[in-house]
Design goal:
With about 325 residues, this protein is α/β, with parallel strands linked by helices. The protein has a single domain, classed as Aldolase class I (TIM Barrel). The chain has 8 helices and 18 strands. The structure holds flavin mononucleotide. The site of flavin mononucleotide has 25 residues, from strand 4.
Length: about 325
């Protein structure tokens, strides 16, 4: 009943982890079964290691948290030599999340992943591209904000890697439909909607931000209406396969995202407070699908976009 399909990617259930919120490797195995989520999505990895932003990196705000982590990671060679080996076969599906600090790095990273898959297939089932990563060639302007950059990043990966590619959109844009269309042009198999919108939490007495990186990304329940808006509008315009993410805490939230057009969802911040959140959601979801009168997830995807039955005439 719970299996779903995101373009070519088949998943045993529609509730995935969100990148950067479920450890870097298998840390969460102490808390929860790694096979429970439909897929584990790893933290963003760049070509070269990054140290990330100065602390503090996370602050609580009303309705969620702001984070300014700065993509610390050990680089793609570590991902392939260590993380992939450690995680292979332990999750229902494993998705690498990738970003290039320069546009050509997307192709180098993709090539390295393909070589690893050619040597030893089945390490990853898909990749997600973090298009919110700053592009150092354009003064840190993220790929997700310019259609031509988003398209090129996706294309560079698709040309070199045979795995399904999900392009992760940013809410920090005026029109996500043109970015989504650009990602489709580049060959994206689906979209992850959305990454965190930028915010600020400050202490007016000291005149300082609560975060070392000054601005941060907002996540948690406050994000849900914004994320649903992006899922709804992008699905309505493109009908592309969508993984919805932003503020999901409960099975009711998941149903909202499916109805708006998502084929699967990711849960991030909720797992910080409730490490078993995904299991709890999965326990309740079949009952809600039954209440909706459907036997499968796919029957409910985009329910909100179906024409309403005309009122019965007597
Ligand atoms: C601490 C933290 C780190 C994150 N790191 C990444 C990351 O490395 N790559 C990425 O694509 N998204 C990252 N995100 C964004 C999440 O994947 C997700 O899009 C966002 O948190 C919204 O979902 P949520 O409200 O369920 O947390 C991060 C979010 C948080 C809170």
């Amino acid at each position: 009943m719970l299996d779903t399909q995101v373009g070519p990617l088949a998943l045993s259930n529609p509730v995935l982890t969100a990148s950067g919120t479920f450890g870097h490797e298998d840390e969460m195995a102490d808390w929860t079964d790694l096979r429970t989520p439909g897929a584990v999505v790893l933290k963003t990895v760049t070509l070269n290691p990054r140290v990330g932003n100065p602390p503090p990196r996370v602050v609580e705000v009303t309705g969620g948290i702001l984070n300014s982590i700065g993509l610390p990671n050990e680089g793609v060679d570590h991902l392939l030599a260590v993380t992939r080996e450690r995680m292979k076969g332990r999750c229902s599906a494993l998705i690498a999340n990738l970003a290039g600090e320069k546009i050509d790095e997307f192709s180098i990273i993709a090539e390295k992943l393909q070589q690893a898959e050619d040597r030893d297939p089945g390490g990853f089932q898909a990749v997600e591209l973090n298009l919110s990563c700053p592009n150092l060639e354009e003064g840190g302007f993220p790929y997700a904000k310019k259609p031509e950059l988003a398209e090129k990043a996706v294309r560079l990966v698709k040309e070199r890697l045979s795995l399904p590619v999900l392009a992760k959109l940013s809410p920090n844009v005026s029109d996500n439909i043109e970015i989504a269309e650009a990602c489709r042009e580049g060959g994206a198999d689906g979209l992850t909607v959305i990454n965190t919108p930028l915010g600020l939490a400050l202490d007016w007495r000291s005149g300082r931000s609560h975060l070392g990186g000054v601005h941060g990304g907002l996540s948690g329940p406050a994000l849900k209406p914004l994320a649903l808006y992006h899922v709804h509008t992008v699905y309505a315009a493109t009908r592309m396969p969508i993984v919805g993410v932003g503020g999901i805490e409960t099975a009711e939230d998941v149903m909202d995202f499916l109805a708006a057009g998502a084929a699967a969802v990711q849960v991030g911040t909720a797992t910080f407070r409730r490490p078993h959140a995904i299991q709890e959601i999965l326990d309740e979801l079949p009952m809600l699908l039954k209440e909706a009168g459907v036997d499968t997830v796919s029957q409910f995807i985009g329910r909100m976009h179906q024409p309403k039955e005309s009122a019965a005439c007597d």
